[in-house]
Structure formats: C-alpha cells, structure tokens
Write a structure and sequence with these properties.
The protein is of the alpha/beta class. The protein has a single domain, classed as TIM Barrel (Alpha-Beta Barrel), CATH 3.20.20. The chain has eleven helices and twelve strands. The strands form three sheets. It has a six-stranded parallel sheet with strand order 6-7-8-9-10-11, with helices on both faces. Strand 10, helix 8 and strand 11 form a beta-alpha-beta unit.
Amino acid sequence: MSRVRTVLGDLPPEELGVCDAHDHLFLSSPRFPGQELDDTVAARAELTAFRAVGGAAVVQWTPHGMGRRAADLPELSRATGVRLVCATGLHQAAHYDPELLDQLRGAGLAELFVAELTEGIGTTGVRAGLIKVAGGFHALDAHTRWTMKAAAEAHHATGAPIAVHLELGTGALDVLDLLCGESGVPGDRVILGHLNRSPDPVVQREAAASGCWLAFDGPSRAHHATDWRMPEAVRALAEAGFADRLLLGGDTVLAGARSVDGGPGMPYLLRRTRPRLEAELGAELVDRILTEHPGRAFGVDWR
C-alpha cells in the first residue's frame, strides 16, 4: 500500500494536502556563503506563513551533507501543522568538501541512501522519503553518474522516488537515459526539477512521455524563464495529454529568499503562482497538481 514517508511517519497520499513539492527549510553550501538556511526560528515562521495561505505539506529536497537539520524537522512539523518530507541523496560535487566525497566513495553511497530511507538519518529517527541527486549543465559528469547509479540502487531496494536537480533546466533526456534506460528505474519514480528553466517544449514533452514527473519550481530569477513562460508551458503539456505529470514548488534556496526575510518564500506558490495558473488551466486542474499529484509522486509501497 502506497504511503508518503513524512518526518512524523508514513501517511496515505490523499492526506498530504496542498503541497509545495520542491522546497528547502534548511540548506548550506560553500557556494552560498552567508546565505545559509540555518535558522530554526525563521524556518518555523516560514512554515507558519505557508500554512496561513493554505499550505499543508512541504517536500524538502536538501540532501545528505548540506545542513538539512533532520533532527529539527519533527518539532517544526508538530508546531506548525505542516507535513514535511525529508530527503537523502547527494548534490553536485561543488557543494561538498572533497574529503567528505572521498569518505562516501569508500563507505558505499547506495547503502547510505537505503539506511537513511529505512532506518533513519543518523540518530534522529527521521526517515527520508525521497532521494535527491543532480545533473550537470547539458551533461552528466562522473560525479553525476556515480550518484545517480547509487540512487537507482537505493530505489530498487526501497521503492523510493528519485528527485533530480537539472542544472539550469538542462540534461533531462540524458538523466532519463541513465536512470530509466541504463538503471531500470520506472519513469513514474523520477521527478525532474527545474525543467522549466530551459523551456524547450519538445524536450518537456519527450520527458513527460517517459512517465516521469515535471516539477515547475520558482519563482524565477531575472535571467530565467520560469514565471513568464510557465503558464503557457504547463497548458501546452496538459493539452498534449500530460496534465497528470505536473508538480509545483517554490525552491527557496537562500536566506534572503524567505518571505520572512523579505523574499517571496513558500507563500508565493499559493499567493501568486496558483491564481496565475488557475487563470490559464482552471482551478480544478491546479488543485489536482497541488494536492493529488504530490501524493502520487512521493507515495511509495515501501520495501
């Protein structure tokens, strides 16, 4: 029976509620000095603000080794009433100390992912509900191939979905060739993030035809195409028969992007993105994308 693995335990997909399918409460990286998401008070305030505009669940894509603070997530979920899903996995090599990567190569990456999905993250007792990995810009380097093959192994052992950061929205078809082609991961167990940042309708349709999920996450930076092309892109996919393959998220990565710190933050998804998409697609479909689809994408018949 399918269940979504939250930080407070597994629950039926239909109980997830209105869901931000790709976001971050905590995240740190040497690439973002001084902009770390590492404040529990701010995280609680952000979840409270999201709850106030109708949000019920957030899937945090922060993977292993990037300050995800799994031990703090259960109390944040209890205090705010927002269901939280935590990730295992590994991001691009640039986000890590090389010594840590060397240790992980020696220890067995797939085994780490499986342990965090089934036994818990460290001593926290919090079990991850998805595996997050990342591609490169129009290419899959050795690090990417290593992490994605480990993610595929962990998927086959547990059934967990694999969420993929596409660098500037590129490389989607190469990712699918590796995960679904070489590694045998079913398409509906793969979630592609940021595909909208490289708004190629042909690639989007070809990716959707694999059965994977397309996560449209933003709001966009000034040089990205996320916001102004997203409604048209989503409508085109729906008209092409892929309305049931869509997810929406906020992807708050830096401290200054939080709504409580003056940015758009998590509430933007429901405050601005939702009505904009409803005008293009109708409220019924947008409601399904925000409620039904995340439960299907992250629901697992856990092994």
